[in-house]
Amino acid sequence: MRELPIIITTEMVKAILDGRKLVTRRLNGLKEINKEPDRWKFSHILCNPPEAIFEDLNDTIDLRQKEKRGQKVKFVMLPYQEGDLLWVKETFLAGCAARTWLEVVSVRPERLQDITWVWRIEFKSG
Prior knowledge:
This protein is mainly β. The protein has one domain. The protein contains two helices and nine strands, in the order E-H-E-H-E-E-E-E-E-E-E. The strands form two sheets. Strands 1-7-8-9-2 form a five-stranded mixed sheet. It has a four-stranded antiparallel sheet with strand order 3-4-6-5, with no helix packed on it. The longest helix has 8 residues, at about 10-15. The radius of gyration is 16 Å and the shape is elongated. About 15% of the residues are buried.
């Protein structure tokens, strides 16, 4: 379990505390994938280290690709892991003074409106 900051707007924090918002989406680490989102297909998530594996549908070599069992794949580090504690970053406050904490329940990549890949981060407030 790690303790990490997350930036969320005031309106979103209120929705989280009211129980109306339990999911957020982030682009962390998906820049290369999103240059050609239709080229990549999400395959699965590895646990150690926590990485998402994307298969290359065009089957061409790209930067940071590794070959595994004859398939071209890209490994992308997950921004958060199940069990991580996120503290909502507020102006001039460090994590130890944070008022809002969120526990990550799940993290997975998903296509957003078939346009771009994002991380879907589900959490519960605590």
